[in-house]
Write a structure and sequence with these properties.
The chain is α+β, with helices and mostly antiparallel strands. It has two helices and seven strands. The longest helix is centred in the middle third of the chain and has 15 residues.
């Protein structure tokens, strides 16, 4: 049975449970849908924080537009599948490390996914002959001990 893409999925990282889902949005120009973007939305189950990582289409940046499958984002040479838990975890860890996102931030946070893409793609495709579609999920990889997703103690 196929899973519903409309329902949130669970991901547990460092003892914190996150709900996440992937969506597709368009810009509206004069009432017409233009400018495809793929959106990964996450939030901790027991926290206030909301995070959206967006990948907008453009020159040299591929997002689902009728040719690519849902969740596929890439630069032509490297691709990520936003439906893979290992990819979601890597993007989450990178958002915490490089953008300082905190799971208990009251204000929702939106991050341009392309600022995370190169590092996450390199991490996800480590050991492969080269970046390719359909790379295996590496969510069993141990977490980076320097990354803590828990809210700071006050």
């Amino acid at each position: 049975m196929a899973r519903s893409e409309k329902k949130s999925r669970r991901l547990v990282v460092d003892g914190t449970t996150f709900l996440w889902k992937v969506g597709h949005r368009h810009e509206r120009v004069n009432g017409l849908a233009q400018g495809c973007r793929e959106v990964l939305a996450l939030h901790p189950l027991d926290g206030r924080g909301r995070l959206e990582i967006t990948f907008s289409g453009g020159p040299g940046r591929a997002v689902p537009d009728g040719l690519l499958p849902s969740g596929a984002v890439g630069t032509g040479g490297a691709y990520l599948n936003l439906h893979e838990p290992g990819t979601v975890r890597a993007l989450l860890e990178e958002a915490v490390t490089t953008h300082g996102w905190c799971t208990d931030d009251a204000a929702p946070r939106c991050i341009d996914g392309w600022t995370l893409f190169d590092v996450v793609s390199a991490r996800r495709h480590e050991g492969d002959a080269g970046p390719q579609r359909g790379a295996t999920d590496r969510s069993d990889r141990p977490a980076d001990p320097a990354v803590s997703l828990r809210a700071p103690q006050v």
